[in-house]
Amino acid sequence: MSGILASMIDGLLIGSVYGLAAMGLSLIWGVMDVINLTHGAVIALGMFGMFILFTAFAVNAYILLLPVIAAGLLLGLVIYWFAVHWVIGRSQLSSLLSTFAVNMMIIGIGTAIWSTSPYNVNFTLRGFTVGAYTFDGNHLAAAAAAVIIGLALELFLYRTRPGKAIRAVADNREAAELMGISSTMVLALAFAIGIALAAASGALISTLFPFTILSGAGYQMKSFVVTVLAGLGKPLGALVAGILLGLLEGAVTPFIAVSWIPLIEFGLFVVVLVVFPKGIFTRATA
Amino acid sequence: MKRLVLAVFVLVALFAAASFAQNLTIGFTASNTGAMNVDSVEQYRGFELWRDQVNAAGGIKAGANKYKVQFVSYDDESKTQRVQQLYSRLILQDKADFLFSPYSSSLTATAAIVTEQYEKIMLTTGAAEGKTYTLGNHYLFQMFTPGAEYLKGVLDMLKTKDPKAANAFVYEDSSFSVAVVNPAKAYAQQLGFSVAFSEAYAPNTTDFSAIIDKVIASKSTVLMGGGHYADGSTLAKQVYEHKVPLKMITLLVAPDSDKWIELGDAAVGVLVPSQWEPQSAFKAQYGPSGADFAEAYTAKYNAPPSYESAGGYASGLILQRAIEQAGSTDTAKVAAALNATDITTFYGRTKFSTAANDHGLQVGHAMVLAQWQKDKSGKLVKQVVWPLAAKSANLVYPIH
Questions:
Q1: Do the Cβ atoms of A116 and B33 come within 8 Å?
Q2: Cα separation, A239 vs A279, whole angstroms
Q3: Do B39 and B114 have their domain in common?
Q4: Which chain B residues touch A257 with a CB distance below 8 Å?
Q5: Which of A47, B147, B364, B376 could cysteine-pair with B128, CB 3.0–4.6 Å?
């Protein structure tokens, strides 16, 4: 197997986790017009959630995703009623500052509890080897879990009444309310799902790499790139864009030093914003 | 009555002043949090054990006075910005008489700017980068062997084992690792080795997949590099998980920690250039023997000392000796005593350069090379494998 192919497979696997992380940001941004700056901190909480559960129960880490998602939903509702509900409808700066404040609170509490020292979830699944290259089981399982969660969200949004209500509110809040949909409840639900997705991605990342309470910041930046690539409010698009970003990373790293990757990613971010302001999956309209 | 009260007050004040003067304040920051946490804590324990033993023995004797050592220490969070603020505070507000360095070359380089500005003596430990000593400093004294020497022993050893080895250098993009790896690459080429791959990674890197794929593609047979505990342990774990066919792995700093055992099978065979190992049998001219230090440390912390711990303790010891030699705590006199220092302690020989172009650089201390091996019972232990005169076990090569 060639080095480029191996690198692209590694990129594909990690890209799906980037995609899952970005889905939450994309959903909240698209439905509520809120740029959720608690995203990175919640990803970090997802990591620690997995760590705590795995330390306590020592079962297959991927089973523990379910309680992490449930806790994420609950946390999402708390954050929504604490800091987001009151600023919806105001300028984007209000929600930006409000969620930033919550982000700082989470980081502060997290630092007090866990310090900023690295933690590890010591769970390993057997991988497979092709030639000189070995792909470890955790990356495969995390990628599979990310895709399953992403598809489940898509089914939820298109096949269930609450999901359709979220899409309706995203399209036209006033019209949805006239149809008897409680937009407040729907917004709370959408925010909670977005937070749960961020926590789930954090839990998956914790099975791959060591982490600290500050680790979410890097994934938040990647989530912004992925969200802009996909266009706002397109969770499945975010998953695909995440995979594309991972593939791009995998394709270029054999030829350049890895320290150049952020430059390429954020260069792409600017290009997409200028050339495809609605994302690469939306045709430009006149 | 008024006179009596006044007399008592004066006596109490004099007594308080006298007892205050008998304390010697040493200031430093430690990384209680952040990426340097593991190594910094071990360094801190070395400082602490020295302080406790010195105070238990009555303090440091300087002329007719005896000084009890007290520490003022803050958490620098492994951040240079914090170090800059806190060393100013240690000097200006806490009135520290002497300073120890934080852990790591980058934090120490930052602290050195402040301590030199205020003309305060700082013994640096846990900081091997040599460039800081070429900047015309007068009060900075390095305990660690400089970075340029770190990987020379590994390459000398490799030359005897496998002169055709293809080297991969994968290292943290930090001042310390760069100061180690750049001279090592030049030395490898000088010895006739090929450098098949070389790449630095960001200090907070957690995903090494891309770099590991490149190491495999380069067909490197040995890997050297790393940086500190967080990245080094992750790199070793991922190299093991990816089953990279390497005959030898040498990482900086991280494998010296006792926590290295937690990596399990990924820890086996990894080499670490070390400033000191408990097996190092130096005949101490001053202070405790290596065995006594290791025993006291293990009894206090329930863990064996690392070379960071030894460096911490030895810093205290060298400062203590300089104060005793100077017969004073005066900065100029103690600095002169440090300049004249040439002594062997349990940590090995310590001698500082007095040349104008690299004043304070460590020129007396030598390093050893340790490897994690399984003993007969299958337990992971660290063995000294180089230099041959100091070895406690034979090198395991290739490791797989």
A1: yes
A2: 13
A3: yes
A4: 199-200
A5: B147
**Chain-chain contact of A254 with B213 (C-beta, under 8 angstroms):** yes
The continuous run of DSSP H or E covering B180 comes out as helix B175-190
Q: What is the pLDDT of residue B17?
A: 47
**Percentage with pLDDT > 90 across chain B:** 77
- pLDDT of the residue at A171: 84
The predicted model gives B204-218 an average pLDDT of 92
Q: Are residues B313 and B186 in the same domain?
A: no
Q: Please indicate, yes or no, if residue A285 is contained in any of the structural domains.
A: no
- Alpha helix (H) ranges present in chain A? 3-32, 39-57, 65-79, 92-114, 137-159, 161-171, 173-178, 183-206, 216-230, 235-252, 261-275
Q: Give how far B53 is from chain A: nearest CA, Å.
A: 30
Domain count for chain A, please give it: 1
CA distance A58 to chain B (A): 16
Of A139, A215, A258, the CB nearest to B210: A258
For A66, the domain range is 3-275
Q: Does B333 lie in the same domain as B247? A: no
Tokens encoding A107: 């980081």
Please indicate, yes or no, whether residues B344 and B308 belong to a single structural domain of this protein. Answer: yes
Residue B134 shares a structural domain with residue B199 = no
Question: Residue B114 falls within a domain, yes or no?
Answer: yes
B38, B174, B205, B209: best mutation site toward chain A, by most A Cβ within 10 Å? Answer: B209
In a mutational test of the B interface, the residue from A117, A249, A256 whose CB has the highest number of chain B CBs within 10 Å is A117
A215 contact B CB<8A? yes
- What is the average pLDDT across A5-16? 90
Query: For residue B345, which phi and psi values (nearest 5 degrees)?
Result: -115, -175
In chain A, the percentage of residues whose pLDDT exceeds 90 is: 57
Written as one letter, the residue type at B397 is: Y
Range of the domain at B348: 2-145+281-358
